[in-house]
Design goal:
single chain; alpha+beta; Nuclear Transport Factor 2, Chain: A; 3 helices; 6 strands; NTF2-like_dom_sf; SnoaL-like domain-containing protein
Length: about 130
């Protein structure tokens, strides 16, 4: 793993720690002012800009305060000189034993020698009904 990949891994780990702690400042810390995020709940056309991204977190923090988990299970990072992406599986739910796997994809750009998140995508797998 190269230096950029290690920096990005730490950035995402710090972000997840901030999410668990309900620390909005920490969640926003490494995000671009032009962030685009596609999330599990609406709006389905995405959240665009740091103000809109900031606005979605209080509701999640309130839900999480009821005992939900938010833990990175696996994380893969690929980095080039100025663009990178990462994907992860996280345990996210109100019962640690049965928390669903949240899929996370992050796109980053290097600006002024610092990595910033420019795209974030969260999703849960859609269960396929059993054929009967």
């Amino acid at each position: 793993m190269n230096t950029d990949e290690k920096q990005i891994r730490k950035l995402i780990e710090r972000w997840a720690e901030a999410v668990r702690a309900g620390d909005l400042k920490g969640v926003l810390a490494a995000h671009s002012s032009g962030i685009v995020m596609f999330d599990v709940p609406p709006p389905y056309d995405g959240v665009r800009g740091l103000d809109a991204y900031r606005a979605i977190w209080p509701g999640f923090f309130a839900w999480q305060a009821g005992g939900a988990t938010f833990d990175i299970e696996s994380l893969e990072v690929t980095a080039g000189p100025d663009v990178a992406f990462a994907f992860a599986l996280l345990r996210c739910g109100t019962d640690a034993a049965s928390a669903e796997r949240l899929r996370l994809t992050v796109g980053l750009r290097k600006r002024d020698a610092r990595w910033v998140v420019t795209h974030e995508h969260h999703s849960f797998p859609h269960p396929v009904p059993a054929e009967g």
